[in-house]
Amino acid sequence: MDDAAILKRRGYIMGINLGEGSYAKVKSAYSERLKFNVAVKIIDRKKAPADFLEKFLPREIEILAMLNHRSIVKTYEIFETSDGKVYIVMELGVQGDLLEFIKTRGALQEDDARKKFHQLSSAIKYCHDLDVVHRDLKCENLLLDKDFNIKLSDFGFSKRCLRDDNGRLTLSKTFCGSAAYAAPEVLQGIPYQPKVYDIWSLGVILYIMVCGSMPYDDSNIKKMLRIQKEHRVNFPRSKHLTSECKDLIYRMLQPDVNRRLHIDEILSHCWVQPRSRGQSAGAINKEGESAGTAHSLWVPELGTDKKSATKMEPREESHPEARPEAGSEVKSQENTVPTSRQAETLAFNPELTKKSEEGFPQQSSETHT
């Protein structure tokens, strides 16, 4: 029996193809019970690799069944047929994904970015509080509902974190995700703290939201790693971002895992909080002290504590050689996994980096180090 017939028997009228990989595909369908369109992820066990069937798929199914958050794609039903096909019926992102939205409309204004980023961060806090990590956060996996609210999707790389006898989270050794969004420790093959990995990816996503471009050029992983480990973040001058926004991004893209922000610190950051809208453009720490005025080019002052907002010091110029790295075009990640949104799951090889011709022209930038 084909997919359309199987879905029809379950009360779904199959629609168009939304994505396809070597062993999984995603179809749209109309639910006669729910009275609206849904997405159906169809996985063929006969074509899937053993490690996916033994490890990733059981994790995904377990986690999807337990999640219930307004900013996470809802899972309505999971069933399997006798011939080894798994059907996961999910909420449909009717407005597409965030990557396509930005490629079509350009960078978001900070107020819109703040709203969407708060929705995403709330979803990540919900997951992290359950000791669930996503490990494949990227704009393609952020779907938009009819009102353009964020819906986090694709938990193919997700897992529940284990704890040792002292209650501390154990490190992960599975290196997965998308190179352009992956933290330096993951790209280097170092056992990593999965929650801390998610935070780096959040930093990349917020940068893309407000800049309309990638923070790092992943066509040369070795060079990208060097820039990341030097804690260099370039912002397009034309975007006129507030210091608070740049401060938050800079502190999420922190190569030192012990200093990278936690999800609670992100949600309490002055830029994310509504009160930040009425404050000056100077960076503000948790004690409410202004840390300087807005400049087109600034660098954090050395020696600040990670628990307080980074103080800023005006500088006329910093690392001009880094400027070509700014404005890397927003592109579909050809070396990413899953191969399509809500579709297939494979581990990436950092050496297999490709450059998309789609995207935005490079812009002049300012450098933060």
TrEMBL record:
It comes from Jaculus jaculus. Belongs to the protein kinase superfamily. CAMK Ser/Thr protein kinase family. SMART domains: S_TKc. Keywords: ATP-binding, Cytoplasm, Developmental protein, Differentiation, Kinase, Magnesium, Metal-binding, Nucleotide-binding, Phosphoprotein, Serine/threonine-protein kinase, Spermatogenesis, Transferase, Ubl conjugation. One of its GO terms (biological process) is microtubule cytoskeleton organization. The keyword Nucleotide-binding applies. Residues 12-272 form the Protein kinase domain. PROSITE patterns: PROTEIN_KINASE_ATP, PROTEIN_KINASE_DOM, PROTEIN_KINASE_ST. It comes from the Eukaryota. GO terms for molecular function: ATP binding; magnesium ion binding; protein-containing complex binding; tau-protein kinase activity. This is non-specific serine/threonine protein kinase. CDD domains: STKc_TSSK1_2-like (cd14165). The lineage of its organism: Eukaryota, Metazoa, Chordata, Craniata, Vertebrata. Residues 333-343 have a biased composition (Polar residues). Its main location: cytoplasm. Its cofactor is Mg(2+). InterPro entries: Kinase-like_dom_sf, Prot_kinase_dom, Protein_kinase_ATP_BS, Ser/Thr_kinase_AS. GO terms for cellular component: acrosomal vesicle; motile cilium. SUPFAM superfamilies: Protein kinase-like (PK-like).
